[in-house]
Known about the structure:
This is ASCH domain-containing protein. By secondary structure, the protein is mainly β. It contains two helices and seven strands; from the N terminus they run E-H-E-H-E-E-E-E-E. The chain has a single domain, classed as Hypothetical protein (Archaeosine Trna-guanine Transglycosylase, Chain: A, domain 4). The chain is 15% helix and 46% strand. The longest helix is centred in the first third of the chain and has 9 residues, at 11-19. It is elongated, with a radius of gyration of 15 Å. The two termini are 29 Å apart.
Amino acid sequence: MKKQLYLVLKKEWFVEILKGTKKEEFRAFTDHNIKRLGVCDADGNFVDTQKYETVKFQLGYSKDAPQMIVEVTDVILEMEDLDQEILTTENTEFVIQLGKILETKNCENL
Length: 110
């Protein structure tokens, strides 16, 4: 089984990724996202980003919601000020770099 991330999106962003015009998905540098997208050492210090092969995007939460599986080329950190030594929610965010759309489901009417 490939390592896959699962994310729910709003319609605007889902459609842009589906059309191929949005090639990156951004997530805040929060505790929740650090657990999903980061790698921490034994002391809880952030040391790297997780490596995912694919991401499954879903539009909303309905039972038959549109979904697509997209290749992940990388997960990186983007910092507002590269001279900062401390990573915070205010100066850092995760960037999920997207590749090809591998599969779609229930996307015909978008």
